[in-house]
Structure formats: structure tokens, C-alpha cells
Design brief:
Blueprint (H helix, E strand, L loop, with lengths): L2 H6 L1 H20 L7 H23 L7 H25 L2
Helix pairs in contact: 2-3, 3-4
Length: about 90
């Protein structure tokens, strides 16, 4: 496999997105234009669950799995993200 094909492979692109999302999370947690720490915390959680979805879909190979398994993965990510953001916001009250 040539280097160019390796760089253009989907897993390589997803890995680069994960690295960029990690850098974005770090920057958000250190006040990237968000005056409220509450907003920054929510943004970091959203980025984290985008990363979770990418890992589940591409590295756990659910993207090509049967529809029921893919829906279970997508539903799990959405429910866990909603629950954690709700708990986070509730804890700040």
C-alpha cells in the first residue's frame, strides 16, 4: 500500500479528525471564546460524544454492520450524550 493511499484511507482521516477534536476540546476547556464555563463544559461533552460516535462507527466497524446494530450504536450515543449533558447542567444548578 502506498503512503498516499494510506493517508487517504478512511481510518486515517477519522484518526486525524479525532486528534483535531481532542485539540478543540482542550482549547474549549481553556476558554475559546466561550465566556461561561457552563457553555464550555457542554461544548466539550458534545465534542467527546462526536468522538465516541466516530470510534464506534469506524474503529468498531459498526458502519457496515446490520441496520439494527447500527441503530443500537447511534441510539446509545445519543442517549448517553443527552443523559450526561442533563446531569452536568443539573449539577451546576
Amino acid at each position: 500500500m502506498s503512503l498516499w493511499r494510506l493517508v487517504r484511507a478512511r481510518t486515517s482521516v477519522v484518526w486525524l479528525l479525532l486528534v483535531a477534536a481532542t485539540a478543540l476540546s482542550w482549547k474549549l476547556s481553556h476558554g475559546l471564546g466561550l465566556a461561561e464555563p457552563r457553555d464550555a463544559g457542554c461544548a466539550v461533552l458534545v465534542v467527546a460524544f462526536i468522538k465516541v460516535r466516530l470510534v464506534i462507527m469506524d474503529f468498531m466497524e459498526i458502519r457496515g454492520a446490520p441496520l439494527a446494530m447500527r441503530l443500537a450504536g447511534e441510539t446509545w450515543v445519543l442517549l448517553m450524550a443527552a443523559a450526561l449533558i442533563a446531569l452536568y447542567l443539573g449539577a451546576l444548578q
